[in-house]
Amino acid sequence: MTIQMFEKPLGMRDDFPFIAKKKAELRASGTSIIQQAGYDLLQTPTLEYYETIGKISAIADNALFKLLDSQGETLVLRPDMTSPIARIAASKLLKEKMPVRLGYYSNVFRAQKREGGRPAEFEQMGVELIGDDSLYADAEVIILAWNVLKKLDIKSSRFVIGHTQLLQLILQDFGLDSEQIEKVHATFVSKNSVGFESLANQLPIEPSRRESFIGLMSTSTVEEWQQWIDPHNAKQNSLFEDMKKLKKILDRSGLSDAITYDLSFNSHMTYYTGLVFEVYGAGSGFSLGNGGRYDGLMKQFGLQVGATGFGLRVDRLLEIISAVPEQENHTLILFDELSEDKAFDEAQKLREQGVRVTLQFAPAVLAVDRFSGLFSKVLRMEGAN
Amino acid sequence: MDALTIAMPKGRIFEEAYELLVKAGYDLPKELDDSRKLIVEAPNENIRFILSKPMDVPAYVEHGVADIGIAGKDVMLEHDRDVYELLDLGISRCYIATAGMPDTPMNEVTPRVATKYPKVASHYYRGKGEQVEIIELNGSIELAPMIGLADRIVDIVSTGKTLKENGLVEYEKIVDITSRLIANPVSYRLKQKRITELVEKLRKQASL
User: Fold this and answer.
1) CA of B145, closest CA in chain A: separation in Å?
2) How far is residue B64 from each of residues A268, B7, B87, B146, measured CA to CA in Å?
3) Distance from CA of B164 to the nearest CA of A (A)
4) Enclosing domain of residue B147
5) CATH number of the structural domain spanning residue B120
6) B79 and B128 inside one domain
7) Is B82's CB within 8 Å of A281's CB?
8) What's the confidence (pLDDT) of residue A319?
9) Of A139, A302, A356, B122, which has the highest C-beta tally within 10 A?
10) Residue A194 and residue B180: Cβ atoms within 8 Å?
């Protein structure tokens, strides 16, 4: 295979100046909200061990970029931020400071098999709140995600919330074993109603409860969840009470119209163990991000603590944030050998006043008119006058 | 009322699905005079139809330029796209099957299979533990066994007439196919009320 001069590896993208600029602004406003909420930003290595982060990350094996280091160990380009942060939090350094609030803005890598243009490297912005298993932690990260979206001026964002553990308990109540539950989960993850209903007919569910079982797929409020809660099951009841409290907190924070409580909502990321949510916004056909509780992931690092967080896809946010048509003040000074001193002084003076100035040696410009057109103001200082 | 964009396959499935929507009580334009139009508006319902090749419907829906779409299960199996499958419409019923010349065993050295559905075919033969070479064709699949390009074909069978006319016989049935109502995951959440309402209305019609 010959590689063309301008080709890039599959899924890699150049950020042209205007995108890089938009990204920098997005990063600044997003991370400012995250820091305001008491989170400390951090950065983790680009390369991690396949044996640890690679396997724990819950990203499909064939989506990992793998390479070997000089000792022959298999490395991966970090596929997500949650597992590296869990690793850090579980290390000695931060263990004593629980609960710890960490935020990040980082690129992650996931190999793409399908259509050429999908990004294999993209930025994520998010937080992890580790060491708090209360519902207040869950509420905090949802509200924070909401506030970040609000700050970025994203219209009609919508959250869908589910609960992995509660769903698991309810499915067990229908007398399903773990293999059957896994099949049901798969149809829930892809919201495959057709597959779910035909599966429901094959599963050994009491005929009197079949209709109730099929109803699992179509809930949108917490109140609707009640019908599947067994009043004699203490665990189910306490989880359900937590959901009701969570809803109250979110309503109070002004999110009441922006949330769908879908009991069947589920993530393909297997490390989520409690509340899970996904974020959508008008203008993108793909979800903007997701989050949830992942106590199980912490356990893999040998720590029995609660953890919850969210991550937003920067590439998708960029796509839908309203482009503010800004008239930037950018001055061009064209000079030649005779006006060199004066032009340098003028540029210095303007820059000190906060003006963005490009200083250009005029004879080096091929097409002066076209080049000048890129600027809001042009000072021609050629000649000795 | 949220505007709804529906991607529809051109041709027979479109007519069947359109009729289903009218029966479900949607106020759509009676006459579709110009059949070459790619976009059809139904202003009374705030619905816009995009007419595309059947194979392309899931792509439109996955990217969200269409909120919902009607796609054959065959296309969905072949192009694994991230869309929600909401309802089996029960129309355009057919199935995917293997076929070939009568009484011919598969070639033992290089068994070849010609198909428009390479992924479905490869999945099927791998599941049976048979190693075959898949040849992807875009049409007139029946030709392949007749001229010796392949021992078997994997293709859609609705009446079996085409097979018979070309002297082919069906061997194994792989999977039943009907048209499905699919939705973009984001649209499903942002326009949930309208989409759920549509699903319920169509469900009543589909089950009749």
Assistant:
1) 31
2) 20, 10, 18, 42
3) 32
4) 94-176
5) 3.40.190.10
6) no
7) no
8) 87
9) A139
10) yes
- Would you state the CATH architecture of domain A17-182+219-320? 2-Layer Sandwich (3.30)
Q: Is the same domain home to B11 and B79?
A: yes
For residues B196 and B170, membership in a common domain is answered with no
CB contact under 8 A, A280 and B82: no
Whether chain B has a CB inside 8 Å of the CB on A268: the answer is no
Min Cα–Cα distance to chain B from A34, Å: 25
Q: Which CATH architecture has domain A330-380?
A: 3-Layer(aba) Sandwich (3.40)
Mean pLDDT, rounded, for B142-146:
94
The tens place of each residue's pLDDT in chain A, 385 residues long, gives 677 888 888 888 899 988 898 999 999 999 999 999 999 999 999 999 999 998 888 888 889 999 999 999 999 999 999 999 999 888 876 777 889 999 999 999 998 876 666 889 999 999 999 999 999 999 999 999 999 999 998 878 899 999 999 999 999 999 999 999 999 999 999 889 999 999 998 998 888 998 999 999 989 999 999 999 999 999 999 999 999 999 999 999 999 999 999 999 988 777 888 999 999 998 888 999 999 999 888 888 888 889 999 999 999 999 888 666 566 789 999 999 999 899 999 999 999 998 999 999 999 999 988 999 889 999 998 876 5
Query: Which chain B residue has the Cα nearest residue A316?
Result: B63
Residues of B in contact with A287 (CB under 8 A): 185-186
Q: Do the Cβ atoms of B192 and A194 come within 8 Å?
A: no
**B85–A191 C-beta distance less than 8 A:** yes
Which residue of chain B comes nearest to A193, CA vs CA? B86
- 3-state secondary structure string, chain B? CCCEEEEEECCHHHHHHHHHHHHCCCCCCCCCCCCCCCEEEEHHHCEEEEEECHHHHHHHHHCCCCCEEEEEHHHHHHCCCCCEEEEECCCCCEEEEEEECCCCCCCCCCCEEEECCHHHHHHHHHHCCCCCEEEECCCCCCHHHHCCCCCEEEEEECCCHHHHHCCCEEEEEEEEECEEEEECHHHHHHCHHHHHHHHHHHHHHHCC
Q: Based on the structure, what is the number of domains in chain B?
A: 2
Tell me which chain A residue has its CA closest to the CA of residue B89: A194
The model's pTM is 0.86
E-assigned strand segments in A190-349: 259-261, 275-280, 289-293, 307-313, 330-335
Out of B65, B85, B186, closest to residue A194 by CB: B85
A190 in contact with B, Cβ within 8 Å: yes
On chain A, the residues whose CB falls within 8 A of the CB of B84 are 190-193
Domain assignments of chain A as residue spans, ordered by start: 17-182+219-320, 330-380
